[in-house]
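ok, trying the design again with the full structure, not the truncated one.
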């Protein structure tokens, strides 16, 4: 069965099929869309927001099955089987109909609508969720969770679960008839956070299946095992009162529907970077500890069974069949991908995928996708497809790529990968080398200093310029200074036409003393004027040198501002509420970029003028 991926760039969205060689599916045509693109969990349909409105298309054939002229929609979500579409747009004052709508895709009708002023952060979307079989729909409101018939969501809920201060709710994966529901209340002042498991429909006072109270938990990530029998709770708070971590405190707990609650003991102090269940549901990998972090495998009893050792990793990704996994270092790390075979625990390859924003295994577990997305990064946008053994199979640049994802398909439609798949594509060490960072070179010196090459001796630098030995009257210190200035003429014997050979201050002074001493010996006696021979005056430094240095300092300061703005935009995209001064910084980005461009032009002009001096 063929697999495919959807990529959206500046020119529109394209469906590509057939790794390792990708071909465009001509039946899928989308106008240029924004970042609002989403597949249903089963991959049967996908939704896009275009300038003309919202559409839902069939993944096979590209037929439009739903269309509404609502271009003002700012968030979308498809139910797991693509039966319903949830949309949110800004609330209009005085409007009778709610701005949060649930659409029946086949009929195009609104089955339920609610008024919701704020979209909320990333963890609170979608505002209406379903169980994986679409039997139950639920919505979190102030101090309550409302449960609906998943096939007929309406304004009136079938069940209500009231919990003061509830912040998150999640339902187990899989089909019924019984469903477990997890609820979380964040810590507040002196009151601890509270985590509870419930049996759906049995929401009476004290009827929970399991409960745990703990501190240092302002927010949590709820990670159900694929079977739904266990729940991992990854806690986080922005402030670490112990002072051990700048990034706050983290913790990891496990909770079972049998009421068992246990703490996951980790062998190295430091933050928990990532946790992922194996698709088989029998174990999970946790990446934890101070740099370099440790990646380790744990069983369902939270006992460590294998350590992958320390490395530049903060992300783990399992292949859908559970045979392969990738340990990666994204964000503030180098971007290495390490491919592992879970069967043998052997490392298959380590490759470079720096600047990766999106990543995902294909449904057949044979290919791994990485993408560099816009606007998170504004250069080198595009995606790569790797084999399960770490070989680079396909690389494509896409202008302003904002979305790339495999079309979801059930893994049971594909045979599990084996040794033949590992041998099919062998990684080449030369195909994607691990790049090493280059030393920073100021803009005004990049032409000349780059020609000399970094990390070489002064003698080699002189040879490269055809100098041979250091010129007469010039020390190695002078030669090094000339290299620092970046001018190739400063390193040559002759220099520019009409230029006189410079003489260092010490050399001139010593020569003057020798000549004065010689005259004294020839008969000048005590009356000889020692100062009669003045050392030649050195030419003043080039007037543009100091100015260039000032400009370069300003450039570095502005580049620092842009990095801060990029981090703030990332926090905002993740749903974090920013202060007014932080929002002002984001709004001023274009002004800052224009200032940077102006400074770079001034530096180039100074450099050209310095060449003619």
């Amino acid at each position: 069965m063929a697999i495919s991926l959807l990529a959206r760039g500046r020119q529109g969205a394209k469906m590509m099929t057939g790794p390792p060689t990708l071909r465009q599916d001509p039946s899928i045509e989308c106008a240029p869309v924004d970042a609002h693109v989403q597949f249903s969990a089963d991959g049967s349909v996908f939704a896009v927001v275009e300038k003309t409105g919202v559409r839902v298309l069939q993944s096979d054939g590209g037929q439009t099955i739903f269309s509404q002229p609502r271009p003002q929609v700012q968030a979308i979500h498809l139910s797991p089987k693509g039966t319903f579409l949830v949309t949110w747009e800004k609330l209009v004052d005085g409007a009778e109909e709610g701005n949060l709508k649930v659409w029946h895709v086949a009929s195009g009708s609104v089955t339920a609508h609610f008024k919701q002023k704020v979209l909320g952060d990333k963890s609170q979307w979608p505002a209406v969720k379903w169980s994986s079989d679409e039997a139950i729909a639920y919505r979190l409101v102030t101090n309550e969770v409302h449960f609906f018939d998943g096939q007929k969501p309406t304004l009136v809920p079938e069940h209500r679960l009231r919990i003061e201060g509830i912040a998150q709710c999640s339902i187990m994966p899989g089909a019924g008839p019984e469903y477990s529901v997890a609820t979380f209340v964040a810590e507040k002042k002196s009151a601890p956070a509270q985590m509870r498991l419930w049996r759906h429909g049995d929401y009476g006072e004290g009827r929970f299946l399991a409960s745990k109270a703990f501190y240092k938990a302002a927010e949590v990530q709820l990670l159900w095992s694929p079977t739904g029998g266990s729940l991992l709770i990854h806690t986080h708070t922005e402030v670490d009162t112990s002072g051990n971590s700048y990034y706050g405190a983290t913790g990891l707990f496990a909770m079972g529907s049998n009421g068992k609650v246990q703490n996951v003991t980790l062998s190295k102090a430091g933050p928990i970077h990532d946790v992922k269940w194996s698709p088989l549901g029998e174990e999970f990998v946790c990446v934890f500890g101070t740099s370099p972090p440790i990646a380790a495998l744990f069983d369902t009893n939270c006992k460590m069974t294998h350590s992958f050792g320390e490395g530049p990793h903060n992300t783990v990704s399992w292949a859908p069949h559970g045979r392969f996994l990738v340990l990666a270092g994204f964000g503030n790390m180098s971007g290495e991908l390490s491919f592992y075979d879970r069967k043998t625990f052997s490392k298959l390859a380590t490759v470079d995928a720096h600047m990766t924003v999106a990543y995902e295994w294909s449904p057949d577990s044979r290919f791994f996708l990485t993408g560099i997305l816009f606007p998170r990064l504004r250069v080198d946008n595009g995606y790569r497809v790797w084999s399960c053994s770490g070989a680079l199979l396909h690389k494509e640049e896409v202008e302003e790529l904002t979305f790339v994802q495999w079309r979801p398909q059930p893994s049971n439609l594909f045979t599990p990968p084996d040794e033949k798949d590992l041998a099919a594509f062998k990684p080449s060490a030369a195909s994607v080398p691990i790049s090493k960072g280059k030393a920073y070179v100021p803009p005004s010196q990049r032409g000349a200093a780059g020609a000399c090459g970094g990390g070489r001796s002064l003698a080699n630098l002189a040879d490269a310029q055809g100098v041979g030995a250091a010129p007469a009257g010039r020390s190695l210190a002078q030669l090094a200074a000339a290299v620092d200035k970046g001018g190739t003429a400063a390193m040559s014997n002759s220099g520019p036409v009409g230029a006189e050979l410079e003489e260092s201050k010490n050399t001139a002074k010593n020569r003057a003393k020798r000549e004065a001493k010689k005259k004294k010996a020839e008969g000048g006696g005590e009356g000889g004027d020692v100062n009669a021979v003045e050392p030649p005056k050195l030419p003043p430094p080039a007037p543009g040198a100091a100015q260039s240095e000032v400009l370069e300092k300003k450039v570095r300061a502005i580049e620092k501002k842009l990095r801060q703005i990029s981090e703030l935009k990332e926090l905002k995209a993740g749903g974090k509420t920013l202060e007014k001064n932080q929002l002002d910084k984001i709004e001023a980005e274009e002004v800052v970029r224009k200032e940077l461009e102006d400074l770079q032009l001034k530096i180039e002009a100074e450099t050209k003028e310095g060449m003619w001096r």
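Keeping the full-length input from now on. Residues 429-438, 448-502, 524-536 have pLDDT under 50 and may be disordered.
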